[in-house]
Amino acid sequence: MDLLKTLVLYMAMVYASSVQTMPDPEAYMAEHVTPAPTAVVATATPEPTPSATPVPTVQVSPNPEYKALQMGDSSDAVLRLQQTLAEYGYYEGELDGRYGNQTRMAVEKFQYNHGLYADGIAGKYTLSVLYDSQQVRYAAPTATPTPPADNLTVALPTQTAPTETPAPADTPAPSESPAPEASEAPAGAEPTEEPVLTPAPTQKPAMEAMEGWVIRLAGSDQPLVIEKKQGRETVTEAVLPCRVGEAVYLPLVPVLEAHGILVISSTDVVDKLEIGYALNDHLYRLAFTEDRNGEPVALETYQDDAPLPLEVADIRKLDGIYYLPSGSVIALTGLEAEVDEAAMVVSVSLPGAR
């Protein structure tokens, strides 16, 4: 018994000694085990896409004394327009007092740079901005590219080869992963082409009736009227001029019929509407279509079956009446039109019509 007690006591002393000499587990782990570094993922912030800045519109009170100037005009007023546009860098042509293509393009550029409707017609609002406003903007100069110099030498920065840092002796080298092989297109497959982006069509500015205005035949005090059917009754209505921006639009057919010109409308052509009339020993024809909203589009004009191009090939419809810019009506009929802003009257006449 004494030997057994002695053996048990000895084993207990050995176990207690080993427990006391064992290091603290947390301290051992903190000292000998190095945690893996945490990867920091950088998040790229996309740069904002700059949006187009609209050209601010110059605000000015229109001067009713200014008369609209357009293609074909020739006067001292056109000469003044050319001189003023030239002072601001918009017009570079001859100062001849004739409203031609160079003058029209200069007016369009001026209108665009001042937030106006760029129709190339110098109306009272455009002229008021040009002559009376203190906010006229000069035309941007045309940039001339600088030709490259001969024997141009470009100094490239010196590249220093990176210094290799030997890996620690105890750290095993990381295993290299093979680069992924590029996938080949199947035989016979055509290469994918990038889609071609088609710009969205520009919406035309709306046409507005000139309320309170009248159209009169030269030498008459009565407004231009048409007859319409309302049920079983026939009513008479005045025909108003219209505006798109500063351009005046006139009703072609009522003006012709008021001067005794026979107008024939036809729908015999597939998907086209036609208006024809004979005037001054010539046969004129207008052909166009209508979109899903019933608006006339794709205007074509002919004189004796030969194409007759217009400066502004635009046609509109209001209350069933077709309107064209006054300049187009003049080109198609020889019409003389005078706009009286003070009296709110558009006087029209067809001299020598037969």
Question: In brief, what are we looking at here?
Answer:
The chain has helices spanning 2-21, 25-32, 76-87, 101-113, 124-132, 252-258, 326-333, and strands at residues 208-209, 214-217, 225-230, 233-238, 242-244, 247-251, 263-266, 273-279, 282-290, 296-303, 306-307, 316-318, 321-325, 336-340, 345-349. The chain is α+β, with helices and mostly antiparallel strands.
Notes on the protein architecture:
The protein is of the alpha+beta class. Helices cover 22% and strands 21% of the residues. The chain has 7 helices and 15 strands. The protein has helices spanning 2-21, 25-32, 76-87, 101-113, 124-132, 252-258, 326-333; strands spanning 208-209, 214-217, 225-230, 233-238, 242-244, 247-251, 263-266, 273-279, 282-290, 296-303, 306-307, 316-318, 321-325, 336-340, 345-349. A 5-stranded antiparallel β-sheet has the order 1-5-6-13-12. The chain has a 5-stranded antiparallel β-sheet with strand order 7-8-9-10-11. It is elongated and about 155 Å long. The N and C termini lie far apart (153 Å).
Please describe the structure with a list of short key phrases separated by commas or semicolons.
354 residues, alpha+beta, five-stranded antiparallel beta sheet, 7 helices
